[in-house]
Structures are given as structure tokens and as C-alpha cells.
Amino acid sequence: MKVSIITVVYNNKTYIEDCIRSVLSQTYKDIEHIIIDGGSADGTLDVIKQYKDKISKVISEPDNGIYDALNKGIRLASGNIVGFLHADDIYANDKVIDKVAYVFMKNSIDSCYGDLQYVKKDNINRVIRHWKSSEYEYRKFKYGWMPPHPTLFVKREIYDKYGSFNTEYKIAADYELMLRLLWKYKISTHYIPEVLIKMRIGGASNKSLKNLIRKSSEDYKAIKNYNAGGIYTLFLKNLSKIPQFFIRSKN
Description:
Blueprint: E1 3-9, H1 16-24, E2 31-37, H2 44-49, E3 57-60, H3 66-76, E4 81-84, E5 89-91, H4 96-106, E6 111-120, E7 123-131, E8 153-155, H5 156-162, H6 173-184, E9 191-200, H7 209-225, H8 231-239
Parallel strand pairs: 1-2, 1-4, 2-3, 6-9
Antiparallel strand pairs: 4-8, 5-9, 6-7, 6-8
Helix pairs in contact: 6-7
């Protein structure tokens, strides 16, 4: 069972090597690593070239944003399973893809997800926010629940059938995608109750008040589009993040 890992990067020479090495450290060996670079000019490509013999595919060209770049990666993927590891992120340990592949092989499922840690940029051992998810229940989407998208692994055939990221959404296309796949089309999923990915803080949706407002607007658009609740859903979705700053993981 081949697993395709898609990494999107643009001018991030500081952390791209950590990301690449994290993929290379995985004990599961049937991995296809695809890197989609947006035309970096800061030395990022020089770092990537150091690992050219160990990376399956590299594309470097301008794109129309992160979701457009992720869609390029999905189109290039040849694995049975597709996952994402952004340039700022690393796997929590070297057994993550082993565990992901195992649950797909053991269970008849379309997707799986786990827990996520937000960590300091310069110290990945300093946890800022711990997103402990929970077992999947369909109804929970109406109460603002969602799995951590960076930890979501999906069969490639699901993207072929139901589509990839909707680029009309500039900040919340990941939420729209999960509502479409898990809520609208009710694909099956499985929860892995442990931290799968460590994400350095500083994502696009949290960079400014303007982005936070836009994200909430796009979230609400997706909620209404799929009849997945109302304004209370958006409120609970945002409220659910607060406890994540106080949870301390044992992982």
C-alpha cells in the first residue's frame, strides 16, 4: 500500500529540511513524497536539491495559493493513500505512516485522522496548543467538531470521486473539504488516538484579524452550503479551540 505525502512550500528554506527529513525518517518505506514549490527564490530549492534522489517528485512554479498547490499534488499522487505534511510541520515520530497504513489495511475505511500539536517555531518540544480529537460521530459536525486537517489521510480514489480542494475558499478550503467528504458524502473514517503531526505556529488563517474574520466567513459559507448547522455551529467550532491551549499531552 503506497502512501503519497504532499508538501507545499514557498520561500521556507529555514524549515523545509526538517520536513523532508521527517518523511525520510519514517519506518514505513512505500512512501511517495511530492513537493510542490511555488517558485521560491530564497534558497528553498537548493535545500530540496540536496535530497533530490530521495524525493519522488518536485515541481517549482507559481501557483494560485496553497489549495491550488495541494490540488497539483493530489493530481500527481499515485499512492493508495494521500496525506499532507506542510513545510513547517513534522511527524510526531518515525512510526506515524506505519500506523496510518496499518489502520487502512486492518479496517475497510476511506480515511483516518489523529491528534495535532501546535508548537513553537524555534522549539518543537514546546507545545502551545494540543488538539486532541475524538472518535468520529456524524452528528458532531453540527456542534462545531472537525478532525485536525493536517492529520487527515484519505484514499486517493475518494478525491477522484468527490473532488479535491475548492479554490474559491482562500483560507477555509480544508474545512469545506472535510464537510464535503465526511458530512455530505459520509465517507468512512477512523480515529488514531495519538499525536500524528507537530505544526509550527503561524498559519495563514491566524496571521491577522482580517484573516480570522475571513476564515469565519468562509467556515459559515461551507456550513450553510452543506446544511451542516447554523451560526451556533460556527460559534461552537471557534469555542472548542480554547481548551486546546490548556491540554497537556502524554505523547
